[in-house]
Amino acid sequence: MKILTPQPFYFDKGSSAVLLLHSFSGTANDMRLLGRFLERSGYSVYAPMFAGHGTPEPLDILNFGGPDHWWEQTLEAVDFLKAQGKKQISVFGLSLGAIFATKALEEIPEIVSGGVFGSPLYTSNFREIRNAFMTYAKKVYSVQQGLTEVEIDSKIRVVDSKIDSMLTEISKTTVGVTENLAEINRPYFIGQGTSDKLVNPDAAKIVAQKVGTAQLHWYDAGHVLTINSAHHELESAVLNFLENN
């Protein structure tokens, strides 16, 4: 079976645009359902791909990505939408993308609103995120690449040797972002699954307390709200948020 390589997408629909930022082990594909829904509702939607993502090699994320690079890509994505003539730009991020969506709301004046889904802000322990990435890597090597057990073990040892430094850098970035949450004065959507195993669901309450404009939405679901059982409910809530803010 041929595995199609994930691609970034841009739906040019209306003068108002929504930027969607994906997760650590995800791709723009995780934002496509929400993107198509917003396109049908009259919004232009752009979902770029963070460096290192969307390839058949999980190590690319650790070798070619990083918070500084991903933030630069967020800035470039906003500039792209501005160059397309979009006057009203909102930004939402899933998990890792939530960090940069929040930073964008703190630092980019042109962003009019935005929010997060499954945000890792105030999640002090990244152990579950680490475990999930290791599981993702093993699945790619065994299912997509069809490597032998010996080859898989060799690859996983390399991933294991690199991932902690990356997660440390991401954690440092979240600290910087949380220190500036009070700077957000534009509408801020928080979507959080009650059964999220990768981040601390209670952290969403802390963020909501720090951001005066926050609107906290709970979902009876796990981490990846854009594609799991909550995605229809999330899509409606995001559209309502955009239409009324």
TrEMBL record:
Catalytic residue list: S95, D196, H223
Keywords: Hydrolase
Record-linked Pfam families: Hydrolase_4
Keyword Hydrolase belongs to the record: yes
Residue ranges annotated for the Serine aminopeptidase S33 domain, each copy included: 16-221
Superkingdom classification of source: Bacteria
Official protein name in the record: Carboxylesterase
Organism whose genome encodes this protein: Companilactobacillus kimchii
Lineage of the species this protein comes from: Bacteria, Bacillati, Bacillota, Bacilli, Lactobacillales
